[in-house]
Specification:
By secondary structure, the chain is mainly alpha-helical. It has one domain. The chain contains four helices and no strands. Helix 2 (about 35-60) packs antiparallel against helix 3 (about 65-90). The longest helix has 26 residues, at about 1-25. The protein is elongated and about 55 Å long.
């Protein structure tokens, strides 16, 4: 499980850097200030959670099954939260209206919040 977590953390961080560079150098001229800031919010939260996954992958203070739950929550959360922000902020560049996807963003946020809450609970229960 730790290997899978660390691989996703590395991938998620690498994609975050690529998206950041793409946004700064390729997208910025085509997006409104608000859309550009939103895109960067997606990147920021993706990177925060890549670092969280690195931590989860290397810590010995939580059990493997607990790591698995946090891994799934973060994976789904980043996909829904950051992914929907990426699509919504670039909506003006497409002919398709993705605004309905905006309903997914807070669901992704709830998954991310749940991962942090569970991490707190796991550490709180661990008496070591």
């Amino acid at each position: 499980m730790d290997r899978k977590i660390l691989l996703l953390a590395s991938f998620m961080g690498g994609v975050g850097v690529v998206l950041g560079a793409f946004a700064a150098h390729g997208l910025k001229p085509f997006l409104s200030v608000s859309a550009f800031e939103s895109f960067n919010t997606g990147i920021r939260y993706q990177m925060y959670h890549a670092f969280l996954l690195f931590f989860v992958g290397i810590t010995t203070h939580i059990k493997s099954n607990q790591k698995s739950i946090i891994f799934k929550l973060i994976s789904i959360g980043v996909l829904l939260f950051s992914g929907s922000i990426y699509v919504l902020s670039t909506n003006a560049l497409t002919s398709f209206n993705f605004k309905i996807i905006g309903l997914i963003t807070p669901i992704g946020g709830l998954f991310l919040i749940a991962s942090w809450v569970l991490l707190f609970v796991y550490f709180f229960k661990n008496k070591k």
